[in-house]
Specification:
5 strands; single chain; alpha+beta; 56% helix; 5-stranded mixed beta barrel
Length: 163
């Protein structure tokens, strides 16, 4: 076998390895960006509370997708409201009172405190789990994949426990 044929095979194998690495790396990064993007819509209200209206909601009614109740303010400049909506009624029970942060420009609210922060980042936990499979299988980086998977499981477990 001539030397040029062997070097040609090695070069094409290197190009294929790089292509796989680039494609799987791009997929993993896109999954993580999507998880952060999905989480940030709620997390920004819970984590960046300076200047936002904070208070409590006593839940009086629940529907299939949301619960609502009377809002009692706890921050300066906030006004009491007869009806505030808590979307995605996970672990929200009628008759209980929850600390919330109001979304600007409407009657929507998100839970605040540790439970609200962890619940807001649940999509990132799912993205970490999904990206760990891509990192392990496509990039052959098992240690990094285990770190990502355990981080995702830890985040989801902490959210489940606090809610």
């Amino acid at each position: 076998m001539p030397a040029t044929a062997a070097s040609s095979r090695q070069a094409s194998a290197a190009v294929l390895r790089f292509g796989r690495f680039a494609a799987m790396g791009t997929v993993a990064v896109l999954i993580l960006i999507a998880g952060v993007w999905a989480s940030w819509g709620t997390a920004q209200h819970v984590m960046l509370t300076k200047g936002r209206e904070r208070g409590t909601v006593e839940v009086t009614r629940c529907g299939p997708d949301a619960c609502w109740g009377r809002y009692t303010p706890s921050s300066e400049g906030s006004q009491p409201r007869a009806r505030v909506v808590l979307e995605s009624s996970v672990a929200v029970e009628r008759g209980r009172t929850y600390s919330v942060v109001l979304k600007p420009g409407g009657d929507g609210a998100v839970r605040s405190g540790p439970a609200g922060v962890l619940y807001a980042w649940v999509p990132l936990g799912g993205a970490l789990l999904l990206a760990s499979v891509v990192v392990a299988g496509g990039l052959l980086r098992t240690r990094a994949a285990w770190v990502m998977a355990l981080s995702g499981v830890g985040l989801l477990t902490a959210a489940f426990v606090t809610i």
